[in-house]
Amino acid sequence: MLRRAPPDGATRPATMRVEMTDSNDRSASVFVHPTADVESGAQVGDGTKVWHLAHIRSSAQVGAGCVIGRNVYVDAGVTVGDRVKIQNNVSVYQGVTIEDEVFVGPCAVFTNDFRPRAQNPDWTITPTLVRRGASIGANATLVCGIEVGEYAMIAAGSVVTRDVKPYQLVAGNPARPKGWVDEKGEVVSRDVDNPPHQG
Question: Above 50 in pLDDT, residue 28?
Answer without folding.
Answer: yes
